[in-house]
Each structure stands twice: as structure tokens, then as C-alpha cells.
Amino acid sequence: MGKGKRIVYFISSILVFILFVVFSYIVSTDTLNQFDFDITVKIQDFIPQKFDTALSFLSLLGNIETYAFLIFLIAIFRRQLSGLVTLISFGAAHVVELFGKAFLHHLGPPYLFFRYDLNLFFPSTYVKPGFSYPSGHSLRVAFITVILTFFILKSKKLSSLPKNILLITLFSFTFFMLLSRVSLGEHWITDVIGGTLLGVSASLFAISLDKSFK
To answer: pTM of the entire structure?
Structure first.
């Protein structure tokens, strides 16, 4: 990938991060609280509880243990030291996430909205860093979606049909993962938007600096 394209990815990363910061400020003012509540009620009314188990499996897959392992594998298979940039970007995004959850006063949905339907939890589930903004699940799925989309589009071994099938599958998984955050009552929609912006910014930053992305 040429220097010009890397600059475009870098600038895009900065712009998305600025958007994340601005959106975070708006969230901190509590002006979107009613919007959060209304969207949660509408989504939970629209999605029958019979789908809660399937969506709960997505919630389980979205834990940091799963994605950290996946990002580690990507870095290893790239077989370049610069692949560590992706790991560092992934980790840095989580530092920002933890900072937001520690200092941005934004309580999560009350228990009456909670619809997680499995008795299985990863260790990270028991770590409660504070408030609910931004969503870590949304951060992770956005990060890996951008990275995998880049790989799929750049692949010279895949024809158009397999690429389209993979992209549709990937985007569908991402959509339902993000939807599950709200439908299961684990996050407000603003948490999901904030996490998604943070994940996209971090992934674009990784692509701009990681020389293993060609």
C-alpha cells in the first residue's frame, strides 16, 4: 500500500476519533438519555425473547478474550514485527474504553432490561470498570470488522463471489452483535455508537501504520 493511501487511513482515523470525542461529550451531558431509553424499549419490543439465547451467544463471543486471541493470531500470521502495531492499537483502544467507563458518568440500562440468557461467562464478565460508555463489545467487533474487510477486499486469491459472501457474512455478524448489546439490555444505543466509533478509529490507525497491511 502506497504512502498516499496510508496517509488517507491515518487522517480518517484521526477524524473518526475526533467524532468519538465530540459524541462522548454529548453523551456526558445526558441530552441523549431519553433517546437511549426509547430506542431500547422499541428494540426489545421488536425482538421476541425466543431470540435471546442466540443473541446471548454473540454476546459471549464478543468478550475481550475471544477478540484478543483473534487479533494475536492475525499478528502472528502476518509474520512481521510491524504486526505488533495492530495489537498495540487494539490495546490502546481498550485503555480509552476503560478511561471512559471510569470517568464518564453514564449508567447502563437498569436490570429490568437485562435479557442475557446463558449461564456461561468469561472471566472478563466479572470485571466492572465503572459506567457503561463506551461498549467494549462494539469496539472489538468494529475493530475486527474493518481489519477483516481490508483483508478480504485486498485478497488476490478470492474472486468477486467469495468476497461478497464473506463480506455479507461479516457485516451480518457485526450487525447482530451490535444489535445484541441493546436487545439484551447490556448497553444503551449511545454506548454502542461510541464503541463502534472508537473501534473504527483504532483499526484505521493500525492499517495506516502497520506495514504488514499491503
So the answer is: 0.87
